Amino acid sequence: MFLKCPECGAPVRRVPRSLLERIAGIFTSRYRYHCRKKECDWQGLLNSRSTAVGQELLLILGVTMVVVALVYGMSFLLVSGGSRS
Ligand SMILES: [Zn+2]
Fold first, then answer.
1. Distance, CA 41 to ligand 1 centroid (Å)?
2. What percent of the residues of the chain are helix, what percent strand, and what percent coil, each to the nearest 5?
3. CA–CA separation, 6 vs 38, rounded Å?
4. Cα distances (angstroms) measured from residue 76 to each of 3, 8, 64, 83
5. How many angstroms does the Cα of residue 32 sit away from the middle of ligand 1?
6. What pTM was estimated for this model as a whole?
């Protein structure tokens, strides 16, 4: 995907991130970019793929729903089991 510098609109190149950014990057799809234009010299974080964030949210939502369903199912079994005896 072709990304542009938010300051001047010139093409940007991906640069290696610091350890802290890499750890934070586990949860986000953000990468550090550096502007190719020497006069601009902009550097910052950009979303590499706008859809990745939505996919991550869907994954979190899916996992949450499964956990809620499991907890609900277990509590239902406990309640129904208790009323029977
Ligand atoms: Zn720039």
1. 6
2. 50, 20, 35
3. 14
4. 51, 59, 18, 11
5. 13
6. 0.45
Region of 3 (left: φ > 0; alpha: ψ -120 to 50; beta: rest) is beta
Q: What is the pLDDT along the chain (85 residues), one digit of tens a residue?
A: 578 999 999 999 988 777 776 676 666 666 788 999 999 999 988 876 555 556 677 888 999 999 999 999 988 888 776 555 5
Domain residue extents for the chain? 1-48, 51-85
Q: Judge whether 31 and 48 are in contact, CB under 8 Å.
A: yes
The amino acid at 68 = V
Query: How far is the centre of ligand 1, averaged over its atoms, from the C-alpha of 34 (Å)?
Result: 8
Tokens of residue 38, six digits: 């020497």
